[in-house]
Amino acid sequence: MFYIDCTPLPLEDMYQLNKSIIIEGVLIPESFKWNGASIPPMLWAILGSPFSPKLMVPSLVHDYLYIHGKILGFTRKQADKLFRKLLLANGVPEEDAETIYLGVRVGGKPHFNYA
Question: 48 and which of 11, 25, 52, 72 could share a cystine (Cβ 3.0–4.6 Å)?
Fold first, then answer.
């Protein structure tokens, strides 16, 4: 399981990275803020809450790539596939990782236009 140094920002409903990290060749700088995994509340009991430890790093990388991926040479599909890979590496059961992956493929909204 991947671990990161981050601080909750309850008034913003986000977390902030305290130390830069490199995961799968992606450098995410300290102070980057993200809102955890975008899982509908009705599925939290099954898949985990947005800030579940198993979802934190995958959602961090995914959110970062949804903002900066185009500059880094990632397509939306590549960002989503890396998200799935990190879910599995972080101990999310395969069927849950596939469900979450399909959710981002259908409903993911990058902050810029992917190619």
Answer: 52
Residue-range definition of the domain harbouring residue 75: 6-107
Q: Mapping DSSP to helix (H, G, I), strand (E, B) and coil, where does residue 18 land?
A: coil
Residue corresponding to tokens 């992917």: 114
Q: Domain for residue 38, yes or no?
A: yes
pLDDT, tens digit (0-9, with 9 covering 90-100), for 76-106: 999 999 999 999 999 999 999 999 999 888 8
* Residue with tokens 């590549």, as numbered in its chain: 78
Residue 29, pLDDT > 70, answer: yes
112 by Cβ neighbours in 10 Å (0-12 / 13-18 / 19+) ranks as: exposed
Average pLDDT rounded to a whole number, residues 7-13: 93
Residue 39: pLDDT band (50, 70, 90) is: confident
